[in-house]
Model the fold of this input.
Amino acid sequence: MKTEIKLDIQAQPDDVTCGPSCLYSMYRYLGDKTISLRQVMDQIERLDHGGTLIEVLACHGLRRGLHATIYSYHVDLLDPTWFAEDGGVHDPEWVAERLAQQLIAKKGDQRMRLATRAMQEFLRLGGDLRMEDLTPGLIARVLNSGTPILAGLSSTYLYQVSREIPETNEDDDVKGEPQGHFVMLVGYAPGKREVLVADPLSHNPPYHTAKYRISIDRLVNAVMLGAITHDANLLVLTPPEGWEPGAGTAAAREPASKEKKDGTKQPHKEGRDGKRQRSAKSEARKARD
Done:
């Protein structure tokens, strides 16, 4: 079944505000007219070069009272063994602690530090973190529910253009580096295997239009290659029952509880086959010794 969501994409004011522009367009689609694009831009934490990360955008949505789900393929930040077999995270506090230990061990750059802190906050605020195979079925499932998808991906691969020098944004196929970008996915035609993209970059090459259709294969590859620039994520924001735009929720304002409502501690659950893998590695080290 062909799906097309009527979302008006806001053109980004400059080269580095694609994330806030997409988020603002999502708010408008959901009926939230209590915040301006300038306010969204001012409230979103940025990297030194001016861009941001999907974890930061997701936290902004959570604080405004929305449900937020991140489908992540960013294996530089998130180890696959931190996820259960169903693709979800069953112990957010444990994953947040693993993220903290990883940052100490790797001494990451600014992007890694911001991504770690924002992901920990995302989990604390009750965000749903998932790692599932990126398939046409996953994209169609979300879009068929009438929900747009905010996608972080490689613009270099999406547009099939030259890499750029980060400091000047000049094209350079030798000295340039791959670039990341945020777009909205607002439709899917399974017969043609095409995704409808709403792009905040008004002068985007080679389409030169705010909305265009591309093959699902190009889209999937562009998302996965976004891992190079700390992208490779999908963000889904949905309003809970009775949501009032801009009101936020108590869950978004208060720290996550370490106990269940009945006072019992949450059971510790490790990621997918985590104990089995660590046990096997331990036995292998003993055998070598």
User: Anything to note?
Assistant: The chain has one domain: 3-250. The radius of gyration is 20 Å. The first strand starts at residue 3 and ends at 4.
